[in-house]
Write a structure and sequence with these properties.
The protein has two domains: about 45 residues; about 190 residues, Rossmann fold (3-Layer(aba) Sandwich). The protein contains eleven helices and nine strands. About 40% of the residues lie in helices and about 20% in strands. The longest helix is centred in the first third of the chain and has 14 residues. The strands form two sheets. A seven-stranded mixed sheet has the order 5-4-3-6-7-9-8, sandwiched between helices. Strands 1-2 form a two-stranded antiparallel ribbon. By secondary structure, the chain is an alpha/beta fold. The chain is globular and about 65 Å long. The structure holds S-adenosylmethionine (SAM). InterPro entries: HemK-like, N5-glutamine_MTase, SAM-dependent_MTases_sf, Small_mtfrase_dom. It catalyses: L-glutaminyl-[peptide chain release factor] + S-adenosyl-L-methionine = N(5)-methyl-L-glutaminyl-[peptide chain release factor] + S-adenosyl-L-homocysteine + H(+). Its EC number is 2.1.1.297. One of its GO terms (biological process) is methylation. It comes from candidate division WS6 bacterium 34_10.
Length: about 270
């Protein structure tokens, strides 16, 4: 088969499987496969709705490459704004500790630290800040650790298994909390795209009946920690953001939109 008919076959398979951005992915597939056997395997997976990121094992977030597998959520483009908000917050105030809660692939904290180390973005030093990545899934943390190592940040980011923030000492610290915890309400989860339900970890997506199960738990853990001050930036979704806002109402949360103009983030300071 020549290259052109190969490309057409790949593009047809991607279109049939309703792949967004099929032109870019088809080019990546051409570069990825070494022979016809490889290509057949890839096309078989595509026909079974497997996301390309899980087939090739890589995903891009904030223009940075990350390793992914089915134990972690594929980083979403909407989440990139959370990194931008965190950079701004860090530049405005000195934090002793930064925690990425529910780190998955580690994309948020890695993108943040890599950005803060660029003199064009941040002129100060980050050495006095402790950076943590937490997740309740050991399998997800394995991926996060691999990415931390790949980006040579083992000396800076500590990946720890725990429920939310329950095992980190935050007493008397100025803390920046970043959270993209599972927030899809149980009923909405059932309506998600079949490729998401079939391949992405349910434990990374579903947030109980209301979608706010983990954010309620985050609030009670925040109250147990005697932090000197904290800023919390969290990601949620438009259908439940009013309820998420109510949970944190005492901290006067402000709603921030994502790149698609949807109400997506809450930022609050105490
Ligand atoms: C929506 S994913 C976000 C992953 C990654 N931060 C991102 O933005 O792509 C949620 C993550 O939270 C983790 N998680 C779920 N419940 C948790 C809990 N109680 N404590 C800590 N992490 C949790 C999941 O394992 C998953 O990795």
């Amino acid at each position: 088969m020549n290259n052109l008919s190969q490309l057409f076959e790949i593009q047809k398979a991607l279109k049939d499987a309703n792949y967004p951005d099929y032109k870019r992915v088809s080019k990546e597939i051409i570069e990825f496969v070494e022979d016809e056997k490889d290509l057949k395997k890839v096309l078989d997976n595509i026909k079974k709705d497997k996301p390309w990121e899980y087939i090739c094992g890589n995903a891009e977030f904030y223009t940075i490459p990350f390793k992914v597998n089915q134990n972690v959520l594929i980083p979403r483009v909407e989440t990139e704004k959370l990194v931008g908000l965190a950079i701004q917050e860090y530049k405005d105030k000195k934090f002793d500790t930064v925690v990425d809660i529910g780190t998955g692939s580690g994309c948020i904290i890695i993108a943040l630290v890599k950005s803060l180390r660029l003199p064009t973005i941040y002129k100060g030093k980050i050495k006095d800040t402790e950076f943590y990545a937490t997740d309740k899934s050991s399998k997800a943390l394995k991926v996060a650790r691999k990415n931390i190592k790949e980006h040579k940040l083992e000396e800076i980011i500590k990946a720890r298994k725990m429920d939310i923030i329950n095992r980190i000492k935050l007493e008397d610290k100025n803390v920046l909390l970043l959270a993209n915890l599972p927030y899809i309400p149980k009923e909405e989860y059932k309506e998600l795209d079949k490729s998401v339900k079939k391949y992405e970890p349910k434990g990374a997506l579903e947030g109980g009946l209301s979608g706010n199960k983990y954010y309620k738990r985050l609030l009670s853990q925040i109250k147990e920690k005697d932090m000197k001050s904290f800023t919390l930036i969290l990601e949620t979704e438009e259908s439940i953001i009013d309820e998420t806002k109510d949970i944190f109402v005492e901290y006067n949360p402000k709603v921030i939109k994502d790149i698609y103009e949807k109400n997506r983030f809450l930022i609050m300071r105490d």
